[in-house]
Amino acid sequence: MQRFGGLARGIAMTVEEEAIYTKVKDDLVRYAAVLVGPDKAEDVVSTVMVRVLSKRQLSSLDEPRAYLFRSVLNESRGVLRGRRSNPLPTHPASTVIAEPDWAVVQAVARLPARQRAAVYLRYWEGLPVDEVADLMGARPGTIKRYLHLAHRSLKGTLE
Question: Comparing C-alpha atoms, which of 123, 127, 125 is closest to residue 150?
Fold first, then answer.
């Protein structure tokens, strides 16, 4: 019996798949926390892993990390559709800040999921636009548009 995010699941992983999962798990949970909030993050990652492993092997994918990031984004969007409002994360996922500007955190949390994902990957994780595009399964121009829209929205909200 394999464990994902504290939930026992009856899906076995090969040694190679377990190595892939172990390598990206923390990144996936932080990413999901930004998208759906820390209370639902591990559930989203667990759901993604169960769905992916029930259909295919991680080792058979060309880019398992990018595939899992896109899957977490898609699952997060589904979770958000079930909510009436976007979640407010309790802290920026991977960045330790002595005194976070909660107005900024709340403004980012109110962005649509794709814009929030792009902002997180680009600015919190510091990834280049091309890598953000790869992880989100979009073109670089689309990511630039998400970032532009997010910037415009945040500027209007925070001024």
Answer: 123
Give the whole-angstrom CA distance, residue 121 versus residue 131: 9
Concatenate the DSSP letters of all residues of 28-48 into one string: HHHHHHHHH-HHHHHHHHHHH
Instruction: Assign 64 a pLDDT band (cuts: 50, 70, 90).
Output: very high
Q: Chain centroid to CA 115: how far?
A: 11
CATH code of the region 2-92+100-158:
1.20.140.160
DSSP conformational letter for 7: E
> Hey, where are the domains in the chain?
2-92+100-158
Query: Can you tell me the distance from the alpha carbon of 59 to that of 64, in angstroms, rounded to the nearest whole number?
Result: 7
> Contact, 53 vs 13, CB < 8 A?
yes
Distance CA 136, CA 71 (A): 9
> Is pLDDT above 70 for 25?
yes
The reported pTM is: 0.68
**Tokens 């005194």, residue located:** 99
